Amino acid sequence: MFSELIATLENYGKSTHAFSIAADVARTRAANNPESVAAWSLLASIAELFVERYERQALPTAECVRWFDLIRAETDRLDAAFAKSDPAERLNAINQTAKTLVDQEA
Fold first, then answer.
1. Could you give the CA distance from residue 44 to residue 20 in angstroms, rounded to a whole number?
2. In whole angstroms, how far apart are CA 64 and each of 11, 82, 91, 105?
3. Engineered SS bond to 23: which of 47, 88, 92, 104, CB 3.0-4.6 Å?
């Protein structure tokens, strides 16, 4: 479900442009999936934060890899949680993803 963002990033070369497209995809999924709107919105915010930071400057390869790995870890966490029907697991995954976003904003 959420791993669709990883495919988007890979298809567009893991670039700033790719993260921008991934953010748009996540926003669209948020609008169309009320049961997972919070998760999609958080992923969109992470991708948008990357774009805001690197949109107008050279992107170090190591930093690109770090952000790609970060968003892949979040999509994996959310995919695992949403594959189960336990609301507590889903909420925990959403909260952990929110913490990741907050940590990156600092």
1. 9
2. 15, 27, 28, 16
3. 47
Residues in the chain, overall count: 106
* Dist CA 55 CA 78 (whole Å): 27
Instruction: Please name the residue that has the structure tokens 């790609």.
Output: 68
Half-sphere exposure for 31 (CA within 13 Å, toward CB):
6
CA distance 97 to 95: 5
Question: Which is nearest to 73 in space by CA: 103, 30, 28?
Answer: 103
Give the pTM. 0.86
Confidence band (pLDDT; 50, 70, 90) for 81? very high
